[in-house]
Amino acid sequence: MKPALVKKFFPNLLSWKELEYLINIRPLMNIERVAVLDENRNRIDEIEWDNSPWTIDTDCYPPHLLREYIEKYVCIFHDMSRCSFNINKVAETLEKKFNKSVDAHVYVCRNVNAVHPFGVHADKVDNLIVQCEGKTNFKVWDPDGKLVVDCAMIPGDAVFIPASFPHEVTTLTPRMSVSFPLHTDHPTTFEDRTWIKL
Ligand SMILES: [Fe+2]
User: Fold this and answer.
1) Long-range CB contacts (< 8 A, 24+ apart) of 193-196?
2) Distance, CA 121 to ligand 1 centroid (Å)?
3) Reported pTM
4) In a designed cystine with 131, which of 15, 119, 122, 153 is the match (CB 3.0 to 4.6 A)?
């Protein structure tokens, strides 16, 4: 597969306000789900804090700490493919099209001076990345080193990055994007995409 840039792929996929709602659900903000990365790609793992006697999952970030981290570091929220109706729908569509299991990772960088932890790198899986808030520059090179995508993405734009294509992400403004990685295997069991409506 080849890299592709799709302008206006999905406007309004996820807004700051929707993310605000999600990150305030403390039981969702488990240290396994939320990776807070410094510029060397190390996880900021302060996992000692006091919990109220009512707390069931004590491995969830206290909101005051997460608020501090999210304004300072790059934060990645994993296993988020069911975090909204639209994201669940995009994941389901990709699963049907490629017959591969799909997750959604929410990338947030609100500090434009934070050095991006990944630099130029390549991933083992194909990825569809949708810009949701702010502006991000994406560069993608083919395996021979030829620059094939160089674009300042704005909300709604998407870029498809095939596995092993080097790419670099530069934050231009406070920004949020959702990445849909396609698993390498063709599984027999997929995420349950049932959306409960009341
Ligand atoms: Fe990547």
Assistant:
1) 193/82, 193/88, 193/91, 193/92, 193/95, 195/85, 195/88, 195/89
2) 6
3) 0.94
4) 153
